[in-house]
Write a structure and sequence with these properties.
Length: 275
């Protein structure tokens, strides 16, 4: 896959990870995780599935009888075992005959000897495995291709294409959606979130895109949200009632230059595996 395809895939993995995180409740709780998103992550990480005793088990290597390996059970606690498939099946869904054995009963009641992680820890393990299968290295030509595609989208008033490229630059430059006081109807605002002098939230510089107008702006300001005059000045530039610092194709060029200045050839920053 191309660098762009790999980066889009990484953004998709981040989205699936957030979906699962949002549904992870307390240990043993009644909440249900997003199994569809978790299955997609497991597939992206190279896991295969088998069913045994009603369990949905995931493994990375071919299962051989009696072989110890990482095994994840897809349930609300996401336990990741380092054991055999037979042992995991017995501990999770024991038969009456198995429960009669004192040795088995002890293993069923306490699986700390074979459980590697649960919930967020297991999700992080799978997510990192999926990321490791992507080649996120890039060079100047890769970034130039993104810039050229973004400029072509602007010229052709192709809003989906422009939004896609801006999303990729947002990933590369760690840009976040604008906080509520700086949001504008009909505009996409992405910028840097930081802490101000009084420990309040700051936002900017930022890229502003109006899909309906087909207009792209760059606001090269860092504004404290507690500063009403600064917020209004920022919004005036974002709306276009005050001149923006950059406009149109020059914004795409600037974003590409920022990536190369901040990263050089290499790997874009990844999202932390746990929140």
């Amino acid at each position: 896959m191309s660098f762009k395809e790999n980066l889009l895939r990484k953004i998709s993995l981040d989205h699936m990870r957030r979906r699962v995180l949002a549904t992870l409740g307390p240990m043993g709780g009644g909440g249900k995780i997003d199994k569809r998103a978790m299955r997609e992550l497991l597939s992206a990480a190279g896991f295969e599935c088998t069913h045994m005793r009603g369990l949905e088990l995931y493994f990375q290597d071919a299962i051989l009888p009696g072989e110890i390996q990482p095994l994840l059970v897809l349930d609300n606690d996401l336990p990741l075992y380092h054991s055999t498939v037979e042992d995991v099946a017995m501990r999770k869904e024991p038969s009456i005959k198995e429960m009669i054995s004192i040795r088995n009963a002890l293993r069923i009641l306490n699986d700390a000897d074979v459980v590697v992680s649960r919930k967020e820890g297991s999700l992080a393990f799978v997510y990192e495995g999926a990321l490791a299968r992507l080649d996120l290295s890039f060079d100047e030509a890769d970034i130039k291709n993104l810039v050229d595609e973004g400029r072509a989208g602007l010229d052709g008033r192709d809003a989906p294409s422009v939004r896609e490229i801006l999303g990729l630059f947002g990933e590369l430059l760690n840009l976040d959606p604008a906080p509520a006081p700086l949001r504008l109807d009909g505009h996409d605002l992405w910028g840097r979130v930081s802490t101000g002098t009084l420990a309040g939230e700051c936002f900017g510089p930022a890229v502003v895109y109006s899909p309906c107008e087909g207009i792209l702006r760059w606001v090269d300001e860092r504004v404290e949200l507690s500063d009403p005059h600064g917020v209004e000045r920022f919004l005036e530039k974002a709306r276009g009632t005050r001149d923006a610092d950059l406009f149109g194709a020059s914004v795409m060029i600037y974003l590409g230059d920022e990536v190369m200045r901040g990263q050089g050839p290499g790997v874009p920053p990844t999202e932390a595996p746990t929140d």
